[in-house]
Design brief:
Length: 90
């Protein structure tokens, strides 16, 4: 079951998190461009949402110099249903 969205989230945000999680497989570390290539979202859209997810602590840099992101512990907890959407509010 997919987690509920926090009030500030859109389906883009959840799709980014799920792509990094790579359910059933090894988690991925990706640039926004690679996330876009592996989702139904445009690169510009992903690029606009990733910094918000990082600000909220759901993703983190894997390699800041190269702009590569990974799922954070908080992001994993959200996807696993251990973190309620309400706790993601400001």
């Amino acid at each position: 079951m997919r987690p509920k969205l926090a009030s500030w989230m859109t389906p883009v945000d959840r799709d980014i998190l799920e792509r990094l999680e790579n359910s059933g497989n090894r988690e991925l570390v990706l640039t926004p461009a690679m996330i876009a290539e592996n989702t139904d979202w445009k690169h510009q859209t992903v690029r606009e949402h990733v910094p918000i997810l990082r600000e909220k602590g759901l993703v983190e840099y894997y390699d800041e110099d190269r702009g590569i992101y990974r799922l954070s512990d908080r992001g994993r907890a959200y996807l696993d249903g251990q973190l309620e959407p309400e706790s993601l509010e400001d």
